[in-house]
């Protein structure tokens, strides 16, 4: 049933967020640490397990796929409720630091991607040899 | 008659949001095809349209939730709020290949630390340039430049003034908005077209909303990889900014 997929997804999120909160309070941070990420990993593992056991039927998968497909509209709704006015009202300090941070972060993407890849490649080569 | 329509729309807020966002998506994909021949992705246009409407919602109502502050669009607040956003992000993990995550896991962790430090430093440097000299203000603006949640958390912890905290939130908002708008245009120049670079990108950018929007408008297949690392960024930022990073700033510039 479709609801099984939706329920599975929801349980993964709730468990993830719970763990995120716990980690946050453990390290003394007033924020959820990685709750969504933990939920994602959980969902990947559970689905993998259920597939191998052939316990995941197509309607259940549809329940998860629907939410995955509705993701972009949800993000558009998210964009439509951003506090754009106060972002701009922050003036030059906010605009400059935000803009520069984005430029620097963009520029670092290829650098960091390469760092990991190089070591992996050497690893793969030694593995081949 | 108009009152009756408005009343129905307001009473069924979430359903109104589905209809409204659906119409926005249709218009955006139409514009993408007709005006840009598909070169600018429909979702990118939809997100820019959403941000523009959020601006007008903000100036008409004076509220802080953009379009969602207009009573008939209150449902957009639920549809695009953190709860459904996180549920939808987790659902995208359905398409994740665990192998890819394992392969790029270390780069992702490195990206998280480098991302927080570099944005923090940028914020501190700009704050210095604009005449802030005390460690609390510098660290708070630096923290806000990582994300708009880390800013106020840090500001409260180190005792920054409320103007500085507001400024730090604004810096984080600007960052999130620019990531949403800029990512699809910059993607091919920074090699953002595979799971590994998406994981690194999520760790460097950090802002969950920025990454969620930016990748959606670039390549929906990359969303789960970027989101997975980005979701750790704010937590890590809240850990590092008010502690180590603040102490370093204070050691250099004094309190």
TrEMBL record, chain A:
The chain crosses the membrane at residues 7-27, 33-51, 63-81, 87-109. InterPro entries: Maln_transptMadL (IPR004690). It holds the Pfam family MadL. Keywords: Membrane, Transmembrane, Transmembrane helix. This is Malonate transporter subunit MadL. It comes from Alkalihalophilus lindianensis. The gene is madL.
TrEMBL record, chain B:
Residues 6-253 form the Malonate/sodium symporter MadM subunit N-terminal domain. Keywords: Membrane, Transmembrane, Transmembrane helix. InterPro entries: Mal/Na_symporter_MadM, Mal/Na_symporter_MadM_N. It comes from the Bacteria. The chain crosses the membrane at residues 12-31, 43-60, 72-96, 108-130, 164-186, 198-218, 230-253. Pfam families: MadM. This is Malonate transporter subunit MadM. It comes from Alkalihalophilus lindianensis. The gene is madM.
